[in-house]
Every structure is written in structure tokens, then in C-alpha cells.
Amino acid sequence: MNPLLNKLQPYPFEKLKQLFAGVQPNAAYSPISLGIGEPKHPTPDLIKKALTDGLSGLASYPSTVGSDALRAAIAGWLERRYGLPKIDPATQVLPVNGSREALFALAQTVIDPTKGDALVMCPNPFYQIYEGAAYLAGAQPYFVNSDPARNFAPDFSSVPEDVWRRVQLLYICSPGNPTGAVLNLDDWKELFDLSDKYGFIIASDECYSEIYFQSEPPLGGMEAAHKLGRTGYPRLISFSSLSKRSNVPGMRSGFVAGDAEILKKYLLYRTYHGSAMSPSVQTASIAAWNDERHVEENRAKYIAKFKQVTPLLEEVLDVRLPDASFYLWARVDRDVAISDTEFAKRLYAEYNVTVLPGSYLAREAHGINPGQNRIRMALVAEVEECLEAAQRIVEFTQKLS
């Protein structure tokens, strides 16, 4: 067996299952889960219709590169959404089966395993795929803690130069999971300058980009590169997905875009990896990327939901409205000394509400676990269920204090 598999940690939800083992939740309450970031809003009818209309394509093997029509739809969306100049659908865009598998596969493509000291850098807390991708590519993860004083942006200025020289790939998530923080243009300039100096590739995970609460949409990596005059998006690959934007997590549809030279090698890897998108999913994806009305309606639901839920939880927890994404990232020990795991376990036992301990989403690095004593709440259900969960959390927290 591959010995690198032994480096992988259990996924956060497996840890949560172990935490709850033997706990009988209060039967007086119906179960509500805020633990998993799985969209619960209905899938738009236009996407379901396009999916069934495309079933005739199942009789053909799909190509890894995807159809011309799909790549054109993705390129068009990028140009409209981020104000980008003409994107070449043939060389700068590649459809993928959801951003998760693509984020993992990129590390296998770009890491040079002959360099035993290779590093993959990522924010902390983080999406666990980044860590697993690093280990299985033969590299080591290096965690940069998110700083609450910097709107949870990672403090890259704290990284020593000898570390930067070993970095081959940097994962960044904006809007962030779990913090919801969005990088600004100065943040991106800092990353691009570091990439130019040390030669590493930036993987920009932007799967939450269409759920936001400000008047201006979140800045994307390719958008930042364009504004800074970086023609051709050197050493930058952006990842996006329909899962959150269009409420189709089960469809497994997304894309990568950016540096054409990297995508050329990435496509070569993927032809062997066997990750071509189903023709029917391609047809549905074209319909989704070409329509913004359902995205605006979906975003309005989240805005209304967060507007009602956040003030309730602010009464008892250290939490505020994020820049974007559908998570609340709350500190639980504001008024009482309690760990994130104990908070989650007791909340489940006494009020039948599931939240995810923040320490499960981070690693101890540089002397601290930046997720400690925090919880992540995914407000993915309809507003009534999220409000009920918030009211139970308020009652539980008031009882603690």
C-alpha cells in the first residue's frame, strides 16, 4: 500500500461522528444539522430540464476537455462576472467534476516529487483536501494561520524566506471556508509578488464566490490579476463550481481556468486520470452558467436568512456577518469557558442541533490551533429551520452562562 496514505487524518465529519458516539440527542427536539456545507435550496428547474434533455449523450464517451459549447459558456461567464478580456475557451478553460477532485488533482500534476523538501502552503483553518493533496503528491503541507485581526486573512508576512523557497503550490480560498473572508486587491498583489519571486503556483478556490452580502461581488483571482496587468494569468489556476452557486452539489460540475501552459499539462494528467464529465451533465452545466436569474434568487435567500439569524447569535456568541459564503464562524467561549468540542457535543445532546467544532477544520501550527473554541455553522437549510436552530443555540448558550 502507498505509505503516504498513513499521513491522512480522518475527515472532520468522521471526527464529529466519533465525538457524538454514544450520545442520545434530546428527543423533544427535531434534528437540525448546521454541520455540513451542503446546499439545501431547490435545484432550479431549468437545470433539471437541461439534464434530462441531455440524456441522449449517454451513448457517447465524453472527452476530457469537454464540449466546445461548455467551454464557451464557462469562458463567457468568467468574462461577464469578472470583467475579464476575451478568454480562450480552447486553452484557458477546462471543465472538471466538481472543484474538490480538481483541487486534489492539481497537486498531483504540479508537485515535483523528486524534491523531497517540497511544500504545499495553505491557510489554517482550511479545506482538508489541500492537506491530503499535499501528502499524496509527496510534499508536506505548511499552514499559515488566519488572523482575526486581519479579517481572518492568512498572515503571509510571517512566513520565513527559507520556507518560501520550498513552496511549489499555494492553496487559497476566497471567499474562505470556514471564515467567509474575501481577499482584497492588496492581498492578491502580495501573493502574486511572492509567486513571481519564488515561482510557486497559486490554486485559487472560489467555489463560494456567488454567495455574498455586500453590494460588490467578491474579487476573484483572475480578476485581480487582470487589474494588476498580469497578462495570461501566470502561475494562477482558479477553481469554481456550480454546487453552491446553482444548488447542484450532486451534479459534480465545475471548472478550472487561468494559465494556459499549466492547463495544458493538467489536461494531460486528467486524460489518464479518467475524469471526463458526463455529456448530460455538460448540457445542464451550459444552462446553469448561461443563466444568472436563479443565482440572484439563491443569493437573495441567503441574504434574508443571514440578516435574521446573525443578530440572534450575536447576542450570545462572538460572531458577525461574513463577507461571503454560507457559514458563520463563531467563537463560543465569550461568556463562559468551554471548548468547541464540548459546546458541539452538549448542543447536540441537549438541543439536537449539529455544528462543526472549529478545531476539526484546522491544525496546530506555530503554537496554536486557530480553530480552537470556534464552531462553524452552515446556514444551508431554509430560513425557518435555520431560525429554529439559532433560537435553540441562544437558549443553550444562555443556560451555559
Automatic annotation (TrEMBL):
One GO biological process term: lysine biosynthetic process via diaminopimelate
MF terms in GO: pyridoxal phosphate binding; succinyldiaminopimelate transaminase activity
Highest taxon listed in the record's lineage: Bacteria
Keyword annotations from UniProtKB, A to Z: Aminotransferase, Transferase
Gene3D superfamilies (UniProt xref): Aspartate Aminotransferase, domain 1, Type I PLP-dependent aspartate aminotransferase-like (Major domain)
CDD domains, sorted: AAT_like (cd00609)
Co-factor(s): pyridoxal 5'-phosphate
InterPro entries: Aminotransferase_I/II_large, DapC_beta/gammaproteobac, LL-DAP_aminotransferase, PyrdxlP-dep_Trfase, PyrdxlP-dep_Trfase_major, PyrdxlP-dep_Trfase_small
Residues covered by the Aminotransferase class I/classII large domain: 32-393
Pfam families: Aminotran_1_2
Protein name: Succinyldiaminopimelate transaminase
